[in-house]
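Q: I'm teaching a short session on how sequence maps to structure, and I want students to see two examples side by side rather than one. Could you give me a first protein with its sequence written out and its structure tokens following it? Keep the formatting plain so it prints cleanly on a handout.
A: Of course. Example one:
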Amino acid sequence: MQTKYLALIICAILYFIALLISGLMALKYQQKHRPYRKVAEEYQRYWKVQKLKWMKTELLKPISTKFELPTGEKLYFVEENQSYIFDDKNRDLKELNKYGFGKYDQMENYYDEVEFMGFKSDYQLFGFKKRNFQAESKTMYVTNKRIIFDQDGIYQQIIFKDIVKAYIAIIYDNGNYFPGYIIHTQKCLYKIISSSPEITLIINQIKKMQQGDNNVSI
């Protein structure tokens, strides 16, 4: 009988220890991801309201440019002083490439149902340390052929043929979360801190219209 009672006491103690550990982990998880959730919820509310307005306007309307473009190329969007993070060696890219043509590509109804691009690294409690990047201020030009990043006369471009999709996302940079978006190519993620999420609509719309042209030069 004493052995039976002792076993019951040990089981009860282990049970309460497990409950305590689970409670502490849940509390830590909630505290750790509170900043992310706060920014994400605010951004999603903003996006839902503004998207309805943008969808009623003609987003693909050519605008003037300060530099000469090749024949047939038109400028549709310019974003000044946006913060840009180039990431080609991150587990987020591997995760997105793994599912990019599966569950993530089910976003063909993107214009009818809003979905934010979230990664495991946004929610994981242990076993992953977020990488810190030095965000760089650049000007981004979006044409019907490519996306051009300009940093004080140093140019980088993405041909539309190489783009998989653009997604609304929360961008992590040096301990803080910011609203922005991701331009996904097979080789890298372009993470952009921005207050102009409508660019994702423009990029995805052009992507559907264009087959791409690798012979475009800056």
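Q: Perfect. Now a second example for contrast.
A: Example two:
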Amino acid sequence: MLNETEVPSVDVVGFNPVASFIFTILVHITMRHLARNCRNKRVARPASQANLTIDQLVATISKVNLVDGSEGWWVDIGASCHVCYDRAMFKSYSNAVDKKVLLGDSHSTVVAGSGEVEINFTSGKTIILKDVLHTLEIRKNLVSGYLLNKAGFIQTIGADLFTLTKNGIFVGKGYATEGMFKLNVDVMFG
């Protein structure tokens, strides 16, 4: 007969659920107690949660219907091109033929033309946006955050502020409003 401290040895090659069950029963029989009263019971470990987030984050895009366009320039991190609704803002301009752009609400609109637009920040710095698309249907002038990144600009977002720098030099800033970041610019027309 086995002593209370001795555990019977069972040779198991690989994992065999039947052998594991029998081994568990033998341990409890030799220890003279029921499995549910075992002091050495294996406690099921909770699943690993290293990358699990409890809060749900939801990003929504809402459509804003305006009669006239909204003055100023807005940063759109998801935009793949710069877009402007006002022809008067272009420094240079060429008409487009059979060109369309896909908007964020999944419908396309006709592009009237494209060209260069100069943006003057309230900081006194100026940037020139190239290949800006002109479409009459959009109601906000959009600066593509993606294209700014490709041009070497550093964009910092925090505490409802947007900061734009290049080569360590401050270029301009913006602020959060209407679910986007509006740049602090002097609104001027070409």
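Q: What should students look for in example two?
A: Point them to this: The chain is about 10% helix and 35% strand. Also worth mentioning: The CA atoms of residues 73 and 141 lie 5 Å apart.
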